[in-house]
Amino acid sequence: MDSTFRRTPNIHLQDLIDGLTSGNRVFLSRAITLIESKRVDDKKEGAELIDRIISNTGKSLRIGITGVPGVGKSTFIEAFGKLLTDAGKKVAVLSIDPSSSRTKGSILGDKTRMDELSKDPNAFIRPSASGSSLGGVASSTREAMLLCEAAGFEIIIVETVGVGQSETVVRDMVDYFLLLMLAGGGDELQGIKRGIMEMADHIVINKADGANIKSAKKARDDYKNAVHLFPPNEADWIIPVGVCSSTEKSGIKDVWMEIDKYQTHTEKNGWFAENRQKQAIKWFHERIQARLEETFYSKPNIKIEIQKREELISSQKLSVRKAVDELFN
Amino acid sequence: MDSTFRRTPNIHLQDLIDGLTSGNRVFLSRAITLIESKRVDDKKEGAELIDRIISNTGKSLRIGITGVPGVGKSTFIEAFGKLLTDAGKKVAVLSIDPSSSRTKGSILGDKTRMDELSKDPNAFIRPSASGSSLGGVASSTREAMLLCEAAGFEIIIVETVGVGQSETVVRDMVDYFLLLMLAGGGDELQGIKRGIMEMADHIVINKADGANIKSAKKARDDYKNAVHLFPPNEADWIIPVGVCSSTEKSGIKDVWMEIDKYQTHTEKNGWFAENRQKQAIKWFHERIQARLEETFYSKPNIKIEIQKREELISSQKLSVRKAVDELFN
User: Fold this and answer.
1) Predicted ipTM?
2) Range of the domain at B38
């Protein structure tokens, strides 16, 4: 899936679009590789591609899933995805992991992790775009999401491992944000960043099976009490807290029922559409900002000039105001 | 305190610095007005001023206080501030309220609200800078904080009413972030934004007096349980939850004792200094970003061009990628 493979000579943009919109997963894959490319000519073609399918997008339900490593995200997505494909839905799974890189074999990794789903004709699994900046990776994932929608996928799952600010980034691109947790609290939560719990639309305690059932239910009750104390969210939605076992496939259907309820609720009160619009506008301004920064930080010597000033600022020898003035003069 | 009053002709920068560093509150006030000014010549002088006092700063303890309107922030700060000034400490109170404006009489408002403290020779109360952007107001408040430190103030309290993103902004400039709450949960929390609870270093249930005592203690216990489920913070600090009555002045000393404990704890584990440095570097990059945006958004017609594209993006007629490309070409 490297760039030489993608650039099959005789594929014209129109053919790519036709293949993609007919739901062909090979064309979808190629389209995603195109929009992820950093080559100047690819970028131009990618912009053209996205612009030509944009009116075909937005019809899916976008679900973000986060949780610390070890919480069982892949197993959960496998069980959850199969539930949906078995019900006849087309499901795409994308992921945001700014630390991943193609050469680490994350495609194989993902496909192995989601064995059944990867073989399902109604499913499409795509690993995280590689890239040095989270903003860039996030933007590629958003565009991949649009391409999946144009290809007729009805449920898009965006998974994140929660590196850096990736939870916030995922939350800003989905309709529903699901937090998977483990019973026990304390140590297991090390990886979850502060503020994420309150941002979730749903908390599910995974691995509620065998000897864990009791502690999972205890955790559920504790979190229910905690969630009750959180301020209400803009969707006017009380965060449900549930338990599930991805291996025993129990509680998975309940997760879907809550999501379905959320969609009905927010479509009725207007939040669903409002949130989508806000997200798109926010994305636009983030890309403007990213472009401004790219231009600025790529100036010759700028990194050295900044680093020099960071040291002076840290040791209280230079004020931030003067440092900025110097950089811009 | 308007600009004509400030621009007393014969005040030279050196005199301002001398007056300020001797602890004179009138000079401190003038210095803050100077750094808040948007006039080109004032900006130059303000940068010079900040740069000349910068090595004199950083020696205070910076405490952020937030809570919804009606939680009793002013009464709390009055009681808390008096406790500290009575112990011989010099206390400055600043505030961040991007919605405030001088003409609304917020100076008088603040001084009336904190009657005793405003008359205290060891206290200095300064209302929020006015300004259209939160970033600008925040930057002025940071600089005002530095000026207060240069003037020998040992405790700086930054209060915020929690408009927009102001809690996050305050949290990024203080050592300790205190969240005042009321018993009862639910409706009273409408104003607190999601994610703030988990970002607090301390939660205090105010108005624990009279008939409220029981429900306040109940709320404290509930929050204690909730806080226990939060992921650990970078300071390796378990958020204390307490009750107080600002009018009866009970529990106020306990708040100070926790803060003192936090300072000792984080000075020992290195977080105190590390956090300060991270905050300064982050501020630097935020100001770079703000300057880039100022330059970009002040271009002729840019607002119209952006608005036009926002509408097309909202109605899915234009992709974000193409919109950004168009703006930059």
Assistant:
1) 0.87
2) 1-55
- Six token digits for residue A42: 């690819």
Contact A324 B291 (CB under 8 A): yes
Cα-only R_g, chain A: 21
Give the residue ranges of DSSP H helices in A87-204: 106-113, 115-119, 134-150, 166-171, 196-199
Out of B143, B197, B314, whose CB is closest to A321? B143
Instruction: Give which of A174, A192, A203 is closest to A275, Cα–Cα.
Output: A174
A238-292, pLDDT tens digit by residue? 999 999 999 999 999 999 999 999 999 999 999 999 999 999 999 999 999 999 9
Q: At what angle do helices B13-21 and B25-36 cross, to 10 degrees?
A: 130
**pLDDT tens across B308-320, in order?**
999 999 999 999 9
- Are residues B203 and B122 part of one domain? yes
A275 within a domain of the structure (yes/no) = no
Owner of token pair 């970009």: B296
- Residue from the list A229, A317, A322 with its beta carbon closest to the beta carbon of B222: A229
Which segments of B270-299 does DSSP mark as H helices, in order? 271-297
Q: Which residues of A touch B197 (CB under 8 A)?
A: 198, 229-231
Amino acid (1-letter code) at residue A237: W
B112 pLDDT band, cuts 50/70/90, is low
Tell me which chain A residues have a C-beta less than 8 angstroms from the C-beta of B328: 291
- Note whether B222 contacts A233, CB cutoff 8 Å: no
Q: In chain B, how many domains are there?
A: 3
Range list of β-strands (E), chain A: 61-66, 91-96, 123-125, 155-160, 176-181, 202-205, 241-243
Is residue B83 within 8 Å of residue B198, measured between CB atoms?
A: no
| Bridge partners for B94 per DSSP | B158
Amino acid identity at B123: A
DSSP state of A88: T
